[in-house]
Amino acid sequence: MKVSILIRTYEKDLKWLVYCLRSIQKYAHGFHEVVVLVPEGTTLKLTAEKVVFVPDKQPGYLAQQSDKMHADLYTTGDYVLHLDADTIFNQPVTPETFFVNGKPIWFITPIEKASPDAVAAWVPVMTRFYGVTPRYEFMRRMGQVIPRWAYGCFRDFAYRWHGKSLEAYVMDQPGHQFSEFNCCGHWLHGNFPDAFHFHNTETDGVPPSVVSQFWSWSGLTNEERATLEEAVA
């Protein structure tokens, strides 16, 4: 089983990316490759990772979501582990960390237990995309693993259901109203429930995460920098 790590980032988050990659080098073992997607025109040279330049489409918030849902075009693994630049591993991990009985783990929370903000933001988005009201929220934890075959199937559904490519659908959404992992998870849960270990956080508990997530939009403070330096030293 080959698992690629994919990070989609952009110029303003490169200061976070440094720590994300250092955490991979320190803690991640047995992964097939590390691929970093950045918009064309970004100055980024790495040696241990593969850098792929993608079109700098706007709005960037939607473009990066579309790029993630084309992960199979940029990676060569059987599965893809998605990370953001403002995340770090906080302990040793292997591909098996993200699987149960050979199936990728996908954390889900019953929609009635999700935060009111999440319900207001994502239920209409998921319903509009898939045509079915979601029973769960699917964007619960960073470090999401998706099998290679799922991306093409997901894009094919978008074309059949909406009459346009997934990229076109995502980029056409007003007010940044799309959520790639919520929509993909909702669709996969409805069509391939046995292909994943869907971990219900309400009935099965919430185990500690192996990924620490920060918030790059707030900027990298001196305190956060010190925390990150200590974590990946």
Topology:
Elements: E1 3-8, H1 14-27, E2 33-39, E3 50-54, H2 60-68, E4 79-83, E5 87-89, E6 99-100, E7 103-110, H3 116-130, E8 136-137, E9 144-147, H4 148-162, H5 166-171, H6 180-191, E10 197-200, E11 211-213, H7 222-232
Parallel strand pairs: 1-2, 1-4, 2-3, 7-10
Antiparallel strand pairs: 4-9, 5-11, 6-7, 7-8
What is the name of the CATH superfamily?
A: Spore Coat Polysaccharide Biosynthesis Protein SpsA, Chain A
Strands in their spatial order, largest beta sheet:
3-2-1-4-9
- The stretches of 5 or more residues where confidence is low (pLDDT under 50) are none
Order of helices and strands: EHEEHEEEEHEEHHHEEH
CATH topology: Spore Coat Polysaccharide Biosynthesis Protein SpsA, Chain A
Choose one word for the global shape: globular
Per DSSP, what share of the residues sits in E-state strands of 2 or more residues?
Answer: 15-25%
Radius of gyration: 17 Å
- Main pleated-sheet profile: 5 strands, mixed
Helix content: 25-40%
**Average pLDDT reading:** 96
| Helix count, DSSP H or I runs of 4 or more residues | 7
Question: What is the distance, rounded to the nearest whole angstrom, between the alpha carbons of the first and last residues?
Answer: 29 Å
* CATH architectural type: Alpha-Beta Complex
CATH class descriptor: Alpha Beta
How many beta strands in the DSSP annotation?
Answer: 11
Count structural domains. 1
Output the structural class.
alpha/beta
